[in-house]
Amino acid sequence: MKIIETVDAFRDVRRRTPDPLGLVPTMGYLHDGHLALVRRARAENASVAASIFVNPTQFAPTEDLATYPRDMEGDLEKLEREGVDLVLAPNADEMYPSGFDTFVDVGDVANRLEGAHRPGHFRGVATVVCKLLTIVRPDRAYFGQKDAQQSMVIRRLSADLNLGAEIVVVPTVRDADGLALSSRNAYVKPDQRDAALTLSHSLNLARRMYDDGVRDAEKIRSQMRELIAVVPGANLDYVSIADADTLAELDDIDRPALVSLAVNVGSVRLIDNTLLP
Ligand code: AMP
Questions:
Q1: pLDDT tens per residue across span 122-132
Q2: Where are the beta strands (DSSP E) in 72-128?
Q3: Catalytic residues
Q4: What distance in angstroms lies between residue 217's CA and the mean position of ligand 1's atoms?
Q5: Which of 257, 158, 243, 168 lies closest to 206 in space, CA to CA?
Q6: Does domain 183-276 have CATH number 3.30.1300.10?
Q7: What would the pLDDT profile of 247-270 be if each residue is shown by its tens digit?
């Protein structure tokens, strides 16, 4: 496994790397969710590259960039074990040298949900993913359903700017109790577990109601809000039941829908989602 810190060195090695190549972009502190992406990439490509880069431009000044968990040594061991060929691990100056002044703005799909609650977030995501796809030139790039809207934004980005990568979305990996794996779970204390589980519990509730025939989206949203409101330490940011293609909020669930939510548990902001049907 080659570990590469600069764009020029990566480009040089990339020229001699067999196609097709699959890329797994990450911010590190890797868990089994990330590794599911790596395994899928390994199964589908001759070569696999992963990137580890905590991207400063997708964090607002009030967010957790400084405390975002990091473990480069542990991450590299995990990637080596999964048979990754190349790791791109640049520092912030390599990706954003002084004078950097170009950003990518994806439209409608980036302005809803997370985009509305984290202004500028998807501008940072789209910019760094555009750079990564341009540097690495993968045939396929792998993203998690856990960040459903992010995957949609990146599909739009790759199609609109002809970045030439097929975007593959991999199902969410969960702990046995249902909590979606996330690097930020490192900061969920044992006594906050019940609060963190309100995400998967409320998504399960939505699915049960849907399976029982409920199609009134607001009825489901309000039951989800109530479930979360009674659990100490869980502070709801939003719940959404939206058209799975456009992310426009639905009144009636008469088409494929993305149920998603964000909950603050102490200082940790967690997100999760499920698709209906
Ligand atoms: P991150 O390091 O949080 O930026 O995540 C890197 C990639 O891993 C993104 O495409 C995420 O959607 C994906 N990912 C994170 N958590 C999970 C999970 N629990 N299951 C599947 N994919 C995940």
A1: 999 999 999 99
A2: 86-88
A3: 34
A4: 27
A5: 257
A6: yes
A7: 999 999 999 999 999 999 999 999
